[in-house]
Design goal:
330 residues; alpha/beta; Rossmann fold; DNA Methylase, Chain A, domain 2; 2 domains; 28% helix; 17% strand
């Protein structure tokens, strides 16, 4: 199976796909415009994906069976016109469309934030589906613009249901060129993992400032459940501000975001261990193996991890895709 890895980040799609395909997957093209993530990608896969996808000629991209992309969500200036490709011209989603239209992969997997489904009162997501689909979630679909005629399925998946302790909801869009494929997303499973399962034995963690620690305990003490949660080992503080501090105490990490790279107070903080989660622990929360390497700039590493796709989610999706189509053989 040949596949391409667009907006590839540090390679979450690639790790997940190759884990499932057991040596039967060949990444023939990868691309990202962020130098930091490309440095990490190169460390792990010995290829440097740095390129501006808007400048890449779709005809020059190698033929492939699978396209995967965690594409950025740019606002669409659609104005209710619903003219398919014309509505999204000038956005990065348009570049995905022109590549799919030219190369006609058997399958694509797209990933984005949950908010994509509600952006502009749902109009943005409808435009995306209009551009892609002739069937949606098993039913015939009449798009109001030009369509690539894919058999499309979409669902919001939460990383905490795939074996990692992170509350991370993302929309996944899976499309098949075969109109007869009846795809089923992985079922939610009982959450069994805990933040305590991924902690390093001898962590090297960044220290928190006295000011930020003061914010944590001042806000913690105002909670009605203070006595019940204050001594929990898995008590996590995050989004630490003078005006507010958020807490989790269910053993699950909050969603990791790129904001972690803008300041330590956005990194999950283990209150009763008096430390932030480490880079390795954050990678584990995203499902990356301990053999995975990342560039050593702390702020860049945090940003890269927050922007990554959760590996076990991709593994589960890929396993389902293999089950329901003869396009790929493991």
């Amino acid at each position: 199976m040949k596949y391409i890895d667009l907006f590839c980040g540090i390679g979450g799609f690639r790790v997940g796909i190759e884990s499932v395909m057991q040596g039967n997957a060949d990444c023939v093209f990868s691309s990202d415009f962020n130098k930091s993530v490309c440095d990490s990608y190169s460390l792990n896969f010995n290829e440097y994906p740095f390129s501006d996808i808007t400048q890449v000629n779709e005809k020059e991209i190698p033929n492939h069976d699978l396209l995967c992309a965690g594409f950025p969500c740019q606002p669409f200036s659609i104005g209710g016109l619903r003219k398919g490709f014309e509505d999204v011209r000038g956005t990065l989603f348009y570049d995905l469309l022109r590549i799919i239209r030219e190369k006609k992969p058997k399958v694509f997997i797209l990933e984005n934030v949950r908010g994509l489904t509600s952006h502009d009162s749902g109009k943005t997501f409808k435009t995306i589906i209009d551009c892609l689909a002739s069937r949606v979630n098993g039913k015939n679909y009449s798009s109001t613009g030009k369509s690539l005629n894919y058999n499309v399925f979409y669902q919001i998946l939460n990383s905490k249901n795939f074996g990692v302790p992170q509350n991370r909801e993302r929309i996944f869009i899976v499309g098949f060129r075969n109109p007869k494929v009846d795809f089923k997303f992985p079922n939610d499973v009982t959450v069994t993992s805990s933040i305590m399962d991924i902690l390093e034995k001898n962590p090297l963690s960044k220290n928190i400032s006295k000011l930020s620690r003061g914010h944590i305990f001042r806000h913690l003490k105002t909670r009605k459940d203070y006595k019940q949660i204050k001594d929990l080992n898995h008590l996590i503080a995050f989004e630490i501000r003078k005006s507010r501090v958020s807490f989790r105490f269910d053993g699950i990490s909050p969603c990791l975001t790129t904001k972690m790279g803008t300041g330590g107070n956005n990194v999950p903080y283990l209150v009763n261990y008096d430390r932030f989660l480490t880079i390795r622990e954050l990678l584990r929360i995203q499902g990356f193996p301990d053999s995975f390497n990342i560039t050593d700039s702390y702020s860049n590493a945090l940003m890269q991890i927050g922007n990554a796709v959760t590996v076990p989610v991709i593994e589960s999706l890929m396993s389902k895709i293999v089950q329901c189509t003869k396009s790929f053989k493991v």
